[in-house]
User: Which sequence fits this backbone?
């Protein structure tokens, strides 16, 4: 199977074409353009190695995310970065290649934080391994984290070793009614205290707070924070993580603003806040300039996540940073075989 | 042992030493450019003192504009640049280049801003790791990564090495705790990587920059994440009558769903060395001890300590002691943190190895090290970040005895090869530097190394930043003749063998 993938890559390189890697295709909506021959990773599936006491699982890219999570759940463990299932067919390869993370991200870390090693095919079809199955590894540049989130524009990830964590013993969700400014203030205040926050979401006057960890810690935090205990908490968090919440179904473009957590209300339109204030989803027809300026003003960046006018690009990179992106792309993928124009119109 | 052959095709400089110094002085005040022999001497080595070299000059810029001047000048003159933080590195990453400039960031040591609401601090690269936590302690916050050298080591050096610490199993490495960098390229361009949000647009350049050992660029400003200080921490000191049982206890703790704030192991030789030095109260008859820490709210800590203790007891611990107060907790840790200097008192010299292995391989690797210790006739106490599989065997030797340093070097190389064989890596946190450059040929095949060089070319096409460190040239690997079989293929099949 690896040899077949390599052949597809080499053939595209010879013919001046390109390939686009695809698992379940649940993120086909994302990016500037979808170009090139589809390279379907789903034939290369299965768990290569899993030893719960090492807190590491090594899986082939085409393995369904649900399958990985089922295997981990059997041993009381989980992917702590909460990779979103943006459809039933999401694969672990897609989760790593996109680098998307869910509600637990602010507390536990992102996809790239948990990737320990990758096996990849490079742009000339060579089978390479970087990183490994150990938590600490500083031999050579950290290419396994670097390819995470690169959307198949640098290499084909064929296997990934991912750090896993035990599932928390206890969970509780609290709900508060408050306005946006108060919610932003509360989130930043709570995040600065030793509370077991594992997810936060503010939308239309309601703040949801999830607490996870040792039973004693969760109980103490519930007593301290107050709020009401909603009955449908699990379904709610799943709708945020997997973007099935009605907010994400709007016909308007969806902007993703990753900014300073304490930034005041942006006032750009319908909104959903996560990650203690540092992630703001805006479902509105915001001009590109306005979106980028707002994110930039608060130390962050904006991405046109879904819909909207993508020809102008879905993100903006400062000139020297863009130049470096292009040099890296040219250096690692000189014939632009991988994911051409998926991430940026210029590479 | 002689100086490491750099074997790195750094281009010839376009100017001589005097002209280089004149050009450096055009952008830096006199007191920021050292070039007299007696001024250069203190910079001849870092924490790995077995390797020494005198650079052409040492530049000590006071601000980013001066850093850019040094880099632009060296780029124009084609002169190698070696970045240096506090000089505490253990792999020779800051070993000067004999025809290069050492760029010391020690004068850039201001904490520029602290945001108590968004919980971040903006600091210059020369700020000491511990100084950050001290500066924000009154806010109830701290900077989590705590390498053993944290009183002295600089945050800039932590970025270069992706430093960890005894608490990184729970709180992560440097790469997990940094939000944003100002990063100057060899051409003198300033890039902002990362951002004040939790991620950045485009490629994850921060992941590449952190741990790149000064080979890709120079960091002039760092925004770090600050965490709320846990209300309470307590540590259990457990004794075992065999290393295997201690190793099993580690696996059992993790398998029980516990992520301790710290989980450290020391063998009998190490505890013996430490007790003479700091009197931490370690049991001297134990074959191995574990230090297992819990932090959080008082309720949480009580629950977790009980759980940890039960698991260790069931795994065969012969003695369990729980720190009664903060003073005792610090005393239990003082021994672990003093392990390197304690060994240094017993023998004139030691090499500290830094391999990481899957934890299930612990017994096998420790037995292997024991056998090697007998074979080479050198003692080797072990301290071990058990929770994340990071071993620090300390090879004791006396460089004044002819041949002993060579023997120690060969012993060290064997240990690292053992780690690679066990599915691990040659360096968990100290970096490759010059020390482990040849073992990189064991860990990686020529194809992987080529990709590293391709990354380097995108940042530093003339290879002026820290040449000869971290990533070996293919020629070097071929010449040292390390035969590494990668997925059944012989390495460097294109090269002749003699």
Assistant:
């Amino acid at each position: 199977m690896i040899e077949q993938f390599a052949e597809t890559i080499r053939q595209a390189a010879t013919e001046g074409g390109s390939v686009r890697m695809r698992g379940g295709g649940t993120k086909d909506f994302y990016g500037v353009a979808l170009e090139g021959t589809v390279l379907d990773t789903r034939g290369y599936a299965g768990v290569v190695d899993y030893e719960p006491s090492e807190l590491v699982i090594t899986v082939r890219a085409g393995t369904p995310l649900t399958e990985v999570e089922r295997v981990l759940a059997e041993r009381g463990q989980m992917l702590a970065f909460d990779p979103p299932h943006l459809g039933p067919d999401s694969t672990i390869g897609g989760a790593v290649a996109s680098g998307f993370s869910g509600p637990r991200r602010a507390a536990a870390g992102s996809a790239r934080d948990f990737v320990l090693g990758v096996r990849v095919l490079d742009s000339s079809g060579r089978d390479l391994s970087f990183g490994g199955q150990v938590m600490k590894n500083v031999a050579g540049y950290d290419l396994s984290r670097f390819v995470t989130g690169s959307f198949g524009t640098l290499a084909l990830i064929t296997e990934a070793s991912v750090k896993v964590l035990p599932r928390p013993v206890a969970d509780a969700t609290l709900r508060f009614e408050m306005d946006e400014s108060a919610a932003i203030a509360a989130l930043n205040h709570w995040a600065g205290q030793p509370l077991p926050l594992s997810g936060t979401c503010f939308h239309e006057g309601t703040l949801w707070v999830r607490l996870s960890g040792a039973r004693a810690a969760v109980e103490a935090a519930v007593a301290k924070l107050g709020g009401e205990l909603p009955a449908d908490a699990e379904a709610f968090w799943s709708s945020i993580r997997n973007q099935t919440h009605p907010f994400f179904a709007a016909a308007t473009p969806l902007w993703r603003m990753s900014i300073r957590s304490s930034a005041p209300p942006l006032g750009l339109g319908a909104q959903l806040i996560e990650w203690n204030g540092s992630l703001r989803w805006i479902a509105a027809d915001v001009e590109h300039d306005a979106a980028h300026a707002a994110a930039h003003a608060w130390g962050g960046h904006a991405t046109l996540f879904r819909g909207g006018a993508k020809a102008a690009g879905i993100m903006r990179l400062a000139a020297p940073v863009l130049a470096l992106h292009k040099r890296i792309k040219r250096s690692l993928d000189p014939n632009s075989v991988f994911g051409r124009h998926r991430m940026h119109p210029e590479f | 042992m002689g100086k490491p052959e750099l074997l790195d095709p750094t281009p010839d400089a376009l100017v001589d030493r005097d002209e280089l110094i004149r050009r450096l002085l055009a952008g830096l005040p006199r007191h920021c450019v050292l070039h007299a022999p007696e001024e250069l001497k203190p910079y001849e080595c870092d924490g790995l003192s077995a390797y020494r070299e005198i650079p052409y000059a040492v530049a000590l810029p006071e601000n980013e504009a001066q850093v850019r001047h040094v880099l632009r000048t060296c780029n124009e003159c084609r002169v190698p640049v070696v970045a240096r933080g506090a000089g505490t590195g253990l792999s020779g990453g800051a070993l000067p280049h004999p025809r290069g400039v050492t760029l010391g960031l020690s004068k850039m040591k201001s904490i520029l801003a602290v945001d108590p609401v968004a919980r971040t601090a903006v600091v210059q690269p020369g700020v000491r790791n511990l100084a950050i936590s001290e500066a924000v302690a009154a806010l109830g916050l701290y900077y989590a990564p705590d390498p053993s050298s944290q009183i002295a080591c600089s945050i800039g050096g932590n970025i270069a090495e992706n430093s960890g610490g005894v608490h990184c199993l729970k709180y992560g490495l440097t790469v997990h705790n940094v939000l944003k960098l100002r990063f100057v390229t060899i051409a003198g361009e300033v890039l902002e990587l990362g951002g004040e949000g939790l991620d950045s647009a485009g490629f994850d350049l921060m992941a590449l920059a952190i741990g790149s050992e000064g080979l890709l660029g120079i960091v002039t400003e760092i925004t770090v994440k600050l965490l709320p200080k846990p209300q309470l921490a307590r540590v259990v000191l457990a004794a075992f009558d065999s290393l295997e049982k201690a190793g099993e206890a580690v696996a059992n703790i993790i398998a029980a769903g516990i992520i301790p704030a710290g989980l450290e192991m020391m063998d009998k030789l190490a505890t013996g060395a430490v007790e003479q030095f700091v009197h931490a109260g370690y049991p001297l008859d134990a074959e191995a001890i574990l230090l297992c820490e819990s932090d959080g709210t008082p309720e949480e800590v009580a629950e977790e300590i009980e759980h940890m203790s039960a698991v260790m007891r069931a795994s065969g611990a012969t003695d369990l002691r729980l720190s009664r107060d903060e003073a005792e907790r610090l005393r239990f840790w003082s021994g672990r943190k003093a392990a390197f200097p304690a060994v240094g008192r017993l023998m004139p010299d030691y090499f500290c190895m830094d391999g990481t292995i899957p934890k299930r391989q612990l017994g096998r690797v420790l037995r292997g090290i024991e056998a090697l210790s007998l074979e080479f006739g050198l003692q080797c106490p072990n301290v071990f970040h058990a929770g994340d599989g990071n071993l620090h065997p300390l090879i004791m030797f006396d460089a004044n005895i002819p041949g002993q340093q060579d023997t120690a070097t060969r012993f060290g190389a064997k240990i690292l090869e053992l780690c690679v064989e066990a599915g691990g890596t040659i360096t968990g946190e100290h970096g490759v530097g010059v020390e482990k450059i040849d073992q990189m040929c064991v860990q990686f095949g020529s194809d992987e190394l080529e990709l590293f060089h391709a990354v380097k070319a995108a940042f530093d096409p003339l290879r002026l930043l820290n040449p000869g460190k971290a990533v070996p040239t293919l020629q070097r690997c071929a010449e040292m003749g390390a035969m590494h079989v990668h997925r059944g293929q012989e390495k460097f099949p294109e090269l002749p063998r003699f």
In short: Residues 1-6, 482-498 of chain B have pLDDT under 50 and may be disordered.
